[in-house]
Amino acid sequence: MALGNRYKTAPGAGTLAALILVLVFGSPWYGDWAADNTNPNTAGGWWLRLLHWPAWTFDTSESLRDVIVGDLKAILLVVLTLLFLYLLPGSQLARARGTISQFFAGWAAYIFAGGFAALLATLFLTNPSLISAFNAAGSGASYGLFVGWIVGLATLGGRRGTR
Predict the structure, then answer these.
(1) Mean pLDDT across the stretch 125-134?
(2) Distance between CA atoms of residues 80 and 128, nearest Å
């Protein structure tokens, strides 16, 4: 028996999309490829480099604290995406699955998750400041704005988390 859309929840599908985005495009291998093979002065190159924003690493010459903060940002992005997908009412109030409200709720969840993940992770840096936290939150929200449509598409057709 094939599992169809009747088993897919919007928060689950959106979180899975966020996890794949973070695992694949946040990896050090993708980051090296994007730095070597894209031009940051073109729209495509800029977007391909932006995909690497929630970068995670496990082998670096940076301090352990900075490595943990970078990884924390990636983890928080996925966890907060799930949280905001449950909290945003657009997909829950839609009368029919697959409506535009589900798309925008998924997209908005990723924007909020990116901004808050960056803001919270910045607070754990060695010398955190309010301006660095605001700059990081802006970068995270920008990432969510330009990449979150993928999470929005993933949430289309999913049912609400509980019945």
Answers:
(1) 86
(2) 21
- Which helix (DSSP H) or strand (DSSP E) does residue 79 occupy? helix 64-87
Nearest CA among 158, 163, 160, 154 for reference residue 21: 154
* Residue 74 to residue 131: CA distance in whole angstroms: 21
93 lies in some domain: yes
pLDDT computed for residue 1 by the predictor = 38
What is the total count of domains within the chain? 1
Calculate the alpha carbon distances from 30 to 3, 27, 38, 105 in Å. 31, 5, 11, 28
What are the pLDDT digits (tens) for 65-94? 777 877 899 999 999 999 999 888 654 555
pTM of the model: 0.85
Residue reference for tokens 């495509």: 44
- When pLDDT is averaged across residues 43-64 and rounded to a whole number, the result is 86
**Closest-CA residue to 84 (of 46, 38, 115):** 115
Q: Is residue 160 situated within a structural domain?
A: no
